[in-house]
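Hello again, I could really use a second opinion on something today. For a while now I've been wondering how a particular protein folds. Please have a think about how the structure follows from the sequence. Here's the protein in full, and shout if anything looks odd to you:

***
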Amino acid sequence: MKVALYIGDHAADGLMARLGWWVTRLVQKGAYGHVTHCEAIHAEHDDGSVTIASASLRDGGVRSKRVKLDPAHWWIVDVPQWDAARSIDFLAETVGMKYDLRGAVATVFLGSQDAARWFCNEHVAAPFLRSSGTFGPHHLTAICLSLGDDITDEFFRSRA
């Protein structure tokens, strides 16, 4: 399965959202601290668009949608051990569940998760990793790159 990791600047977001993303980048450690969001890629379409799925604060929770990813804002990693069909089945079980802001914050600060809610990297990794809610986007990036390969250039070249 391919995982899309957001490395954009959030320039189109409002002031409060940009502040939240700035704090996210500030508190995350390591080489991947600039990654603020992730998505499972469930399908690739002939028009260059993809169907992505995860939990999104902006969209209110767990959802899937068809989008065109901007190569200036996304990093794509192929994790061959992760099966997209398993992720799609998990999405079917969780679609519509609310976003877990408290859980996302708890990946870097004291706090706890809400078992009935999800945040992005927790949702993407849940079918494949135990305790997926303990990882922030920067952790998930390191895990994905350890298991798979950065295919960003070839992914976007094939959509040009």
